[in-house]
Amino acid sequence: xxxLVESGGGSVQPGGxxxxxxxxxxxxxxxxxxxxxxxxxxxxxELVAIITNGxxxxxxxxxxxxxxxxxxxxxxxxxxQMNGLxxxxxxxxxxxxxxxxxxxxxxxxxxxxxxxxx
Length: 118
Hints:
By secondary structure, the chain is mostly beta strands. It has no helices and eleven strands.
């Protein structure tokens, strides 16, 4: 059974920080990319950040300079350090891990809530 479990979500004031973690087990292949997505109420799911097994990273324009993604392919873990949080960052954050060819393997976590409000 494949499991991806997110943790670290919560409620913070604007300008605060949170660190999200995701741990995977049971994935029967080497991971090419790990990433974080989010979905706010009434909006579509969007990419937040990704990191490949070669260390290449990419971020949504809205979080550049504030969020940092890191990972450990050997342990199948990925992290998201979120700084300078804004109310518009409020969403459910989902962990994703996949192979280079996405149709060959693509897995999701159950999500963790992040709420930013004063």
